[in-house]
Amino acid sequence: MRKIVLIYGLIAGVIVGAMLIITVPLYEKGTLDFENGELLGYSTMVVALSLVFFGVKSFRDNYQNGTITFLKGLQVGLLITLVASLVYATAWEICYHNMADTYVQKMETYYYDKMKAEGATVEELEKSKTQFEMYKNNFLMRFSITAFMEMFPVGLIISLISAGLLRKKEFLPPQSVAR
After folding, report:
1. SS3 for 26-91, per residue?
2. Distance between terminal CA atoms of the chain?
3. Separation between Cα atoms, residue 173 and residue 156, nearest integer Å
4. pLDDT at residue 166, rounded to an integer
5. Most buried of the four, 1, 78, 87, 122, by CB within 10 Å?
6. What angle do CA 100, 141, 150 make, to 5 degrees?
7. Domains in the chain: boundaries
8. Confidence (pTM)
9. Sign of CA pseudo-dihedral 157, 143, 5, 55
10. Could you say which DSSP state residue 173 is in?
């Protein structure tokens, strides 16, 4: 199981991490904004985390004789998601320290202005500013938010779907090799 988790998790993490490294400069230049960028980011996560499905299927077919329980499928999927999320958060830290000169400031301004337009109170706006300062200055908080509040929930959903589908032997059964 370890080999499958690492292979599929690393590939998914590299896909999302590479897209992050590609898009951060586009934010800096103004080519992307926070609305279309969010859509692009989560779409990339879904595409990359589709590897959860293939990882669970590979484990089922190659190590479980073509059968897998829902819980075992979920376990494999979540472990793949964990690896991918950690790679993604690492890629963000690289971007944060080397490429995102004004990105976080622009993000803070965007969300602050959005909250203001939606009628946030002065207290809510101050709380938001305090949270952004903590985010900027606390590696553990920033890494945890990036890994577990951005990417992991997407992988959780994909893991649940994959485990549910692949527990059925008839769903994409293993291919026999003709000799």
Report:
1. HHHHCCCCHHHHHHHHHHHHHHHHHHHHHHHHHHHHHHCCCCCCHHHHHHHHHHHHHHHHHHHHHH
2. 28
3. 23
4. 96
5. 87
6. 70
7. 2-166
8. 0.90
9. positive
10. P
